[in-house]
Amino acid sequence: MISILVAAGIGLLVSILLTPYLIRVFSRRGFGQEIREEGPAGHKSKRGTPTMGGVAIIAATVAAYFLAHLINWRMPSVSGLLVLFLAVGLGVVGFLDDFIKIRKQRNLGLNKTAKLVGQLVVAVTFGILVLNFANKYGLTPASRNLSYVRDLALITFPAVIFVLFVYIVVSGWSNAVNFTDGLDGLAGGVSAMVLATYVVIAFWQERLSCVNTPQAACYDVRDPLDLAVVAAAAAGACIGFLWWNAAPAKIFMGDTGSLALGGLVAGLSITTRTELLAIVIGGLFMVEMISVVLQIAVFRTTRRRLFRMAPFHHHFELAGWAETTVIIRFWLLAAICCMFALGLFYSEQLGAGG
User: Fold this and answer.
1) Averaged over 81-95, what is the pLDDT?
2) What is the pTM of this model?
3) Domain of 180?
4) DSSP string for 1-51
5) Binning pLDDT at 50, 70 and 90, where does residue 37 land?
6) What pLDDT score does 317 carry?
7) 58 falls within a domain
8) Residue 164 covered by a domain
9) What is the count of structural domains for the chain?
10) What is the DSSP letter of 154?
11) Torsion over CA: 66, 67, 70, 73 (sign)
12) Is 334 within a domain?
């Protein structure tokens, strides 16, 4: 428990202190955000706001994770390191995307192929590695079973199909968070809630680990406590960044932050065996991504728009809602999703114990 609190505190502190430094550096270098011309009129004033603030989130998360282990004299786990690898790897892809946008002064960075290849390489590497490194109890960071709150024994993937599944999960979550990152503080606030939910889930899995307390309702998860430390470090980093990213934002996280945060959600869902439950935990992210898919599908088939603009949050802005109203109400929806997911998690445990 101490490691979790230390990681959260250090993540918040590093992020809240590092972000203003990045604001000054990026402002001097002209690393400003480009804005879509077809977007809400109020967003035009945001052009030139420093971007790539996700660097602070990534740096704070990594620093908090390792410092928490150093302070408590604990070795990092394979599961924790692999989730961090996934987040940092996707963050690098996002950084390249942001940097190209800035250099070419346009709202498009890496082309679709380059971005796809970058996500593919990172996700496939992660997918292969999480099936290795079994501990003395035979547990690997992930299993080849599809999972809800724990592995579903009826659905086991062959290794190759599992790696493909991991790519779909990683690509889906990274893009979902990326779509949500369109309003000041929206993605950062929702990510903090989702990651805090994973702190609770992973900590509970540690308390009822089959290694420590064998019983009907125990969890076969490798390194759950360390996964809670990762989630706590990232949640603290998001809150610290939100201090500067909340409306009116002094800096944006950019693809650097959104892809990294999507990687954290994907990695935690796979290593905690909660891939299906994650859809509920990150329900707002899912709605944002689905809104984009529906908008494209409807427009291509009927040549009409289902929403005024996708992702979904822009639809409400164009309907006349104030930006802060959209943000706060979406935060509330995200909180409801997280609380409902925790209820599902706990009720399953009670059912399994009975």
Assistant:
1) 96
2) 0.92
3) 2-142+152-277
4) -HHHHHHHHHHHHHHHHHHHHHHHHHHHHT-BPP--TTS-GGGGGGTT-B-
5) low
6) 85
7) yes
8) yes
9) 1
10) E
11) negative
12) no
